[in-house]
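Deliverable D4.2, example record:
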Amino acid sequence: MQNFNQKYPSLLPEVFKYTSEEEISNSGVYAVLKKALSAIEDFKTYVETPKPVAQPASKPVKKPDAAPKTSAPKTTKLSKTKDYKDLMKECKTKFGEAMLNAEDNLENFNKTMAEIQRKINEFFQKSDN
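Output generated by the structure prediction step:
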């Protein structure tokens, strides 16, 4: 149509004036239409061609070499043994009694302290063997 204004598509002319085939061929529209047609065909092949699926690159996971587990014999601390606890209880009791009687009899206090030290030394010497 010759009298249709593309800037105002809502305003239609009262009478349509059509362009003849000769005027269309002379206007150079065919070259533009051929380019548009080839672009549409290229786009069609692009759309219809499946996308290549890339395989995810898997990196080998290095596992650290596990150190051989050595089962060392479990040693219980001396402070956790019943003998140790009994010895400490006895030493605390004797020390408390010696402190109460230290004012009256200092010599007895010194003997009690020496006895406590001897018992502790014997306990640790016995546990070392």
